[in-house]
């Protein structure tokens, strides 16, 4: 495929955000540089290897939409979304190849492909990318197909074995998962994720800790179907949301009490094998949407040396 500068920087920022989320510390139930938590099949280097392998996938999604305006994209959304899904499926193959068959970023690929495409449609009309505008276009591109997925899965069949984890959670418990987030226009990201990230950065917090606060803020509200992947019990999702809301009510990363509760939740989620992976994917989304915005470019410059320090364990804050 041909390339262009906009597609390149969009892809680079998505990869950076996925890597930064992987490197962030103190994430309950999730892989960090110092723990594998509820996961037995991956560590932080698996995640970083996966993230770095996906740059071409996100670039190709952006390039697909390089010559489209919003009207053209919406009018052809069914065929366009099918092509984006094909690009995403290829990205999954790359991911599985470099991780030895481990699903590290399946949700992140879906979101990154969709948002890279939406951002490329918008970017020629805007000097900087407004997160709300990008999310609106992404919703418009995906809405018919995702709604069809959810309606088709809710048929008269008693079996859910053929469904993906996300559709199984929707069919069994009404948990909307990643599809519901996209259909809502990324409401959790816009109303919780990005505001939490920007609050942290404006208070001078390092990127790793800022992403932890972003994650906790998303865990409190997201209908995260990945929490149900290992055990189909909706009480697990309620537990995650309750713990996250308690952490936020006690100051999150900004207080000693909040930090203690984060550590406690990490121990509990690790013991119960709860992984809020959907919230982690949306944490990365919050970061790259922030990076694409004008104030994001100023407030959160890509500092790879800082990121490497966090991976190396030299700047843990708890």
UniProtKB/TrEMBL annotation:
EC number in record: 2.4.2.52
Domain of life of the native organism: Bacteria
Stored InterPro entries: CitG
Q: Which UniProt keywords apply?
A: ATP-binding, Nucleotide-binding, Transferase
Any one GO molecular function term: triphosphoribosyl-dephospho-CoA synthase activity
Biological process terms from the Gene Ontology for this record are: prosthetic group biosynthetic process
- Quote the catalytic activity from the record: 3'-dephospho-CoA + ATP = 2'-(5''-triphospho-alpha-D-ribosyl)-3'-dephospho-CoA + adenine
What name does UniProt use for this protein? triphosphoribosyl-dephospho-CoA synthase
Provide the species name.
Answer: Propionibacterium acidifaciens F0233
């Amino acid at each position: 495929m041909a390339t262009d500068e906009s597609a390149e920087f969009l892809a680079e920022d998505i990869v950076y955000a996925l890597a930064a989320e992987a490197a962030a510390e103190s994430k309950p139930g999730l892989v960090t540089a110092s723990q594998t938590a509820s996961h037995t099949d991956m560590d932080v280097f698996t995640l970083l290897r996966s993230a770095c392998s996906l740059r071409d996938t996100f670039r190709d999604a952006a390039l697909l939409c390089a010559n489209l305006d919003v009207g053209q994209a919406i009018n052809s959304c069914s065929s366009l979304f099918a092509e984006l899904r094909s690009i995403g499926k290829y990205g999954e193959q790359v991911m599985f190849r470099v991780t030895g068959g481990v699903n590290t970023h399946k949700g992140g690929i879906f979101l990154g492909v969709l948002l890279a495409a939406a951002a490329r449609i918008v970017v020629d009309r805007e000097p900087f990318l407004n997160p709300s505008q990008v999310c609106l276009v992404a919703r418009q591109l995906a809405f018919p197909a995702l709604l069809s997925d959810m309606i088709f899965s809710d048929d008269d069949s008693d079996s859910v074995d053929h469904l993906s984890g996300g559709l199984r959670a929707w069919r069994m418990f009404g948990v909307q998962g990643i599809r519901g987030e996209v259909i809502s226009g990324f409401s959790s990201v816009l109303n919780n994720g990005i505001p939490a990230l920007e609050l942290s950065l404006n208070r001078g917090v390092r990127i790793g800790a800022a992403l932890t606060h972003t994650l906790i803020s998303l865990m409190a509200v997201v209908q995260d179907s990945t929490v149900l992947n290992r055990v189909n019990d909706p009480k697990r999702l309620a537990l995650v949301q309750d713990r996250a809301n308690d952490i936020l009510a006690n100051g999150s990363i900004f207080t000693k009490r909040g930090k203690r509760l984060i550590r406690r939740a990490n121990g509990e989620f690790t013991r119960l094998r709860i992984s809020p992976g959907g919230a982690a994917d949306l944490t990365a989304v919050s970061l790259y949407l922030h990076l694409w915005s004008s104030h994001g470019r100023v407030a959160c410059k890509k500092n790879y040396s800082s990121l490497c320090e966090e991976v190396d364990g030299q700047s843990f804050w708890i």
